[in-house]
Amino acid sequence: MTSAEINEIQVLLSTPKHIVIVPHKNPDGDAMGSTLALYHYLKQYNHEALVIAPNDYPDFLKWLPGDDTVLKYESDTDNCQKLIHQADLIFTLDFNALHRVGPMGDDIANSKAIKLMIDHHQQPDDYAMYVYSDVSMSSTCEMVYRFIDLLGDDELVTPEIATCLYTGIMTDTGSFRFPSTTSQTHYIIGKLIDRGANNAKIHNAIYDTNSYEKLQLLGCALRNLKVIPELRTAYITLSQDELNQFDFKKGDTEGFVNYGLSLNNIVFAAIFIEHKKENIIKISLRSKGDFSVNEFSRQYFEGGGHTNAAGGKSDLNLDETIEKFISILPSHKNELTS
């Protein structure tokens, strides 16, 4: 983002506006952390700001400061459509293509509001007037901190903002262990702790609130784990019946795919989860090294993301999806085994 663009945004934000802030569908810690942090920042300038999430999200994120103000498009569509079309500015955070918000994307595209994108995913679309895109960043939350700093407002980072940003950086870096975690990431984390983020409480709220049913579901997922050693690949399946058996709730499978990737000599891991209500198989992909699951997902499963973490979907049934996945792998043998 250029200094001229920053100056223009400063002018835009210098007088109160109606502002809508949007995360992607099925928002995770980085999506909700970044949107709520920006919400708290904009409220300090007396903007009429609000977060509209495309749909609901896991309970382990609902303690975040400001969560009680979040609207859900899926359950409050008419009101959300009205607010989107009344907005002067729309910030889209943690996604860079409007299909990532489902039907809400059409309302955003048709709104006369000025659009601003803050995101760290690859290959952004061009729907926004102002684009802050950097795939080298650990998370959108790290980018929001830098965005606030670029606007000259580092001193306005409150404990609420610090808590939201810490949450998103922590979750999107796998508790600071992924390659995207840099010395600058740790520097920002230190600043957020100094500004009031309680790192121990945040970690406990995200990771130490498991239900008995979730742990039983994890056991089921691990029993379903399959390994293709000659292609250094592991995958997990979960059917709708298995989800129902263990009283599945949104967010319960978060991180399951990483168990496959943790195996010795595995560089590519996937999880396939059946969702009969949407009539799709949801797919999460993870990798180590240079094998790009972003490109793999874009090519075969209508998805995308980062080099080492991506998502996608399949309209085939679960068995057919697995059959397709396995049939594709040999064409990537050199990449997977080099």
Q: Would you kindly provide a written description of the structure presented here, covering whatever features stand out?
A:
The structure is a single chain. This protein is of the alpha/beta class. The chain has two domains: 3-207, inorganic pyrophosphatase (n-terminal core); 212-337, Roll (Diaminopimelate Epimerase, Chain A, domain 1), CATH 3.10.310. The protein has 14 helices and twelve strands. The chain has helices spanning 3-12, 29-43, 77-86, 104-110, 140-150, 159-172, 183-194, 199-207, 212-223, 240-245, 257-261, 293-300, 318-328, 333-337, and strands spanning 18-22, 48-53, 71-72, 89-93, 114-119, 130-133, 226-228, 233-238, 268-275, 280-287, 304-305, 309-314. Strands 3-2-1-4-5-6 form a six-stranded parallel beta sheet, sandwiched between helices. Strands 7-8-9-10-12-11 form a six-stranded mixed beta sheet. The longest helix has 15 residues, at 29-43. It is globular, with a radius of gyration of 20 Å. The mean pLDDT is 96.
Question: What layout of secondary structure does this protein have?
Answer:
Elements: H1 3-12, E1 18-22, H2 29-43, E2 48-53, E3 71-72, H3 77-86, E4 89-93, H4 104-110, E5 114-119, E6 130-133, H5 140-150, H6 159-172, H7 183-194, H8 199-207, H9 212-223, E7 226-228, E8 233-238, H10 240-245, H11 257-261, E9 268-275, E10 280-287, H12 293-300, E11 304-305, E12 309-314, H13 318-328, H14 333-337
